[in-house]
Specification:
This protein is an alpha/beta fold. It contains 8 helices and 12 strands. The protein has a single domain, classed as 4-Layer Sandwich (Metallo-beta-lactamase, Chain A). It is 39% helix and 20% strand. A 7-stranded mixed beta sheet has the order 1-2-3-4-5-6-7. Bound molecules: zinc ion.
Length: 275
């Protein structure tokens, strides 16, 4: 299913968790971002890429190493892969692979490609590291907080902001790494909007947007969620913590992530008291 298509950008949306996979075409190359999820969906993306590529170099970008974002890796064996140094050095590579295999086994899914943790050809080591190919410029920002290995990618001159699992309109922040890192990553959004002319934001789950006010709104909403959760955890306010999800569309399915956030913030607070 195609969620958005204009100006060389095609955003596919999986039936599962509204996960997005993005294909960006520039005159000099083609980028695929996080191809996922069901076998037929990955196949549709592959067919689409074969059709539009026209001999251009193909790059496969991973925004982070969560298993739903890496499972399509081997469907594009000819692509040059891009990921962060934290992605390359991730300590839980095997568990990511195991999660994919367990999912496929649970739903009797077969794929015509291998499931392995991606090998990265172009490693993003530094903040604002740039990738240039003819008139295509990609600027990468480190985006830890959700996971330690996250990346933001700004593809110019199209002005596409690939956000990975941040700035979603359907999800609250899923904090697997650190709440403080998550906040710092969100604060980079202002800098990005000032330094680049952004025409489209694509989150890892949910809807893309062309509206700058909507990007600001999502950033603010995420920051407020973290701040609120921290305050309620500090005050032991279980009732308020429970009701924080009332405004989200799939709150019962998301509760588990909210509870994980609560545990993580509890742990962070106890560690900061201990030091
Ligand atoms: Zn995800």
């Amino acid at each position: 299913m195609i969620q958005y298509r204009a100006n060389g950008v095609t955003v596919f949306q999986s039936a599962l968790y509204q996960t997005t996979s993005t294909v960006v075409e520039t005159p000099s190359c083609v980028f695929i971002v996080d191809p996922s999820w069901l076998p037929q969906e990955v196949d549709d993306i592959r067919t689409f890429v074969i059709k539009i590529r026209k001999g251009r170099p193909l790059y496969l970008l991973f925004t982070h190493s969560d298993w739903d974002h890496i499972l399509g890796y081997k469907a594009f064996p000819e692509a040059i892969t891009i990921g962060s140094s934290e992605f390359v050095n991730h300590p839980e590579k095997q568990s990511r692979v195991d999660q994919i295999l367990a999912f496929d086994s649970q739903y009797y899914l077969t794929r015509d490609y291998e499931i392995v943790y991606p090998c990265i050809d172009r490693v993003i080591q530094n903040e604002k590291q740039r990738f240039v190919l003819d008139d295509t410029l990609v600027t990468f920002y480190k985006a830890p907080g959700h996971t330690i290995c996250g990346l933001f990618a700004i593809i110019e001159p199209l002005g596409v902001f690939i956000a990975g699992d941040y700035l979603s309109d359907v999800e609250f922040p899923y904090i697997e790494d650190s709440s403080e890192a998550y906040e710092k990553t969100l604060h980079k959004v202002d800098d990005i909007l000032e330094s680049h002319s952004i025409n489209l934001l694509v989150p890892g789950h949910g809807n893309s947007t062309t509206q700058i006010t909507e990007i600001h709104f999502r950033k603010q909403r995420s920051l407020e969620y973290i701040k609120m959760l921290r305050t309620y955890v500090q005050n032991n306010n279980h009732n308020k913590i429970t009701h924080m999800l009332d405004e989200y569309p799939f709150s019962s399915g998301m509760r588990h992530y909210h509870e994980n956030n609560e545990l993580l913030i509890k742990k962070e607070l106890s560690m900061s008291v201990g030091t």
